[in-house]
Amino acid sequence: MATSPQVETVSTGADKAKLAAAAVLLIGSVAAFYLLNQQSMWLRVVALLVGVALAVGVFFASENGKQLIAFGRESVRETKKVVWPTRKEAGQMTLYVFAFVVVMALFLWLTDKTLEWVLYDLILGWKR
């Protein structure tokens, strides 16, 4: 199976500035929300949403944002390659899991009661 080589990108000064600007915009939008407490609520919410939208836009303009977008696109592409089970197969597998859980529950209960009987009744002699 061929794997693609990992390429490590070097963060430039401009990229770091974009990330810092996104952080400042985000913090500023939250601060504006609280500093505008004398204004109506809709104005405060609009200021918050505009600030967050600007911060997200600046973040996605940075290299980290572009990598995040590429990762999302590749994830969607890989998800489309998955062969999903049919409804019948999914139902059968669900029944198998439930049956296994019931069998394991009975096994663990039987093991617990056996150990309880051996330890308390035979070894320690405690009768309930």
UniProtKB/TrEMBL annotation:
GO CC term, one of those recorded: plasma membrane
Family the UniProt entry places it in: Belongs to the SecE/SEC61-gamma family.
> What is the official name of this protein in its record?
Protein translocase subunit SecE
* Source domain of life: Bacteria
Q: Name one GO molecular function term.
A: protein transmembrane transporter activity
Give the species: Ideonella aquatica
What does the UniProt entry say about where the protein is found? Membrane
Write out the entry's keywords from A to Z: Cell membrane, Membrane, Protein transport, Translocation, Transmembrane, Transmembrane helix, Transport
Q: How does it assemble?
A: Component of the Sec protein translocase complex. Heterotrimer consisting of SecY, SecE and SecG subunits. The heterotrimers can form oligomers, although 1 heterotrimer is thought to be able to translocate proteins. Interacts with the ribosome. Interacts with SecDF, and other proteins may be involved. Interacts with SecA.
Checking Pfam families in the record gives:
SecE
Parts of the chain that traverse the membrane: 19-36, 42-61, 93-111
GO BP term, example: protein targeting
